[in-house]
TrEMBL record:
It holds the Pfam family DUF488-N3i. This is DUF488 domain-containing protein.
Length: 118
């Protein structure tokens, strides 16, 4: 799909080209103030369920299964997905997450879901 979407850790300072900054974690990241986050939206309803997040535990061996299970959750979460797609229709969006792993986290999985690559 043709939309401008990037992913960054919320611990990185905002960049001028971030566009709309959307936190996609259910839990607010430690040590980050609301002001420094410079969010457009905290879309916690699009984050994985607590059960799925705890099951995944950022274990690399569970990444493929996590993406599948998260996609099923997203399929059943039309309102939050539609809200995010609405923002994407207005220009660049940067999805923000708090996890340490930059390659295997819910924001990366969400991008794959939105682009239809999962």
């Amino acid at each position: 799909m043709g939309f401008d979407l990037t992913v960054r850790r919320i611990y990185e300072p905002p960049a001028p080209d971030d566009g709309r900054r959307v936190l996609v974690d259910r839990i607010w990241p430690r040590g980050v103030s609301k002001e420094s986050a410079a969010l457009t939206l905290w879309l916690k309803d699009i984050a994985p369920s607590d059960e799925l997040r705890k099951w995944f535990g950022h274990e690399p061996a569970r990444w493929a299964e996590f993406r599948k299970r998260y996609a099923v959750e997203l399929d059943g979460n039309g309102e939050a997905v539609a809200q995010l797609r609405g923002l994407l229709g207005k220009g660049k969006v940067t999805l923000l997450y708090g996890a340490h792993d930059e390659a295997q986290n819910n924001a990366v999985a969400l991008v794959g879901y939105l682009r239809g690559t999962d």
